[in-house]
Design a protein that fits this description.
Number of helices: 9
CATH class of the largest domain: Alpha Beta
Shape: elongated
Distance between the termini: 46 Å
Strand content: 5-15%
Order of helices and strands: HHHHHHEEHEEHH
Number of strands: 4
CATH architecture of the largest domain: 2-Layer Sandwich
Radius of gyration: 29 Å
Largest sheet: 4 strands, antiparallel
Number of domains: 3
Structural class: alpha+beta
Length: about 220
């Protein structure tokens, strides 16, 4: 409605040739000032993409919080929405890195963990296991052991003993794959993923500390 009124007011002037350059400039300035007001934040765009029931579920806790505290709670509600957005982004990064082949290498952690794997493999089983290869990425490792006779009960016991020692070193056994005279073990650490520069920057915006402080104020 407001746009129609503005259009009807400006159209006669637009038809006057001497005012066209001025009006063109004025229109550009108004659009420059108004367009940011129509850009919805990311969390609102994501919310709008959900069904009505899903929207209600997402907003249930926020609605009850708002009803209890009123408009004084708006800064905390905004902070909660922004922190939720960061959590969803981090969960997406975790999902994107759930497979070994999808991960980049965290050099310091990977070098230290590969050294630990080699040391434990040699010492825990009294040199009865031969490590053919090991590689670590971000929080996942793969190690290849020689198994000339296959996965016999005796060999399995040695592997389980090694897996128990690796667990004390923060490596949880995930998967075993038997191949031709070798087995491959996949191990996972509970370390936090190391992200690239841009992802880490997006996860830790300058406003994050303020949002956390807003939430902490309401929890006290």
């Amino acid at each position: 409605m407001w746009f129609v009124k503005i259009k009807s007011a400006l159209l006669p002037l637009w038809r006057a040739k001497f005012t066209q350059p001025v009006l063109a400039t004025l229109t550009g300035v108004l659009l420059y000032l108004w367009l940011p007001l129509f850009k919805a934040p990311d969390w609102l765009v994501q919310l709008n993409s959900l069904s009505r029931d899903e929207q209600q579920e997402q907003l249930k806790n926020l609605n009850s919080f708002y009803k209890k505290y009123g408009e004084a709670a708006l800064p905390a509600l905004h902070a909660q929405l922004e922190l939720d957005k960061l959590r969803r982004f981090e969960q997406q990064l975790i999902d994107d890195n759930k497979n070994f082949d999808d991960q980049d290498r965290d050099e310091l952690w990977a070098d230290a963990t590969e050294f630990m794997i080699a040391h434990l493999t040699q010492n825990v089983a009294n040199n009865q296991l031969r490590l053919l290869d090991s590689e670590c990425r971000n929080n996942l490792c793969r190690m290849v052991l020689e198994a000339p006779q296959g996965l016999t009960p005796e060999y399995r016991a040695l592997v389980l003993k090694l897996a128990g020692s690796l667990k004390t070193g923060d490596l949880e056994f995930q998967q075993l794959t038997e191949g031709n005279k070798r087995i491959t073990l996949e191990l996972k650490s509970d370390k936090r993923l190391k992200y690239g520069y841009f992802a880490a920057k997006k996860l830790n915006p300058p406003e994050k500390a303020q949002w956390q402080a807003e939430i902490k104020t309401w929890l006290q």
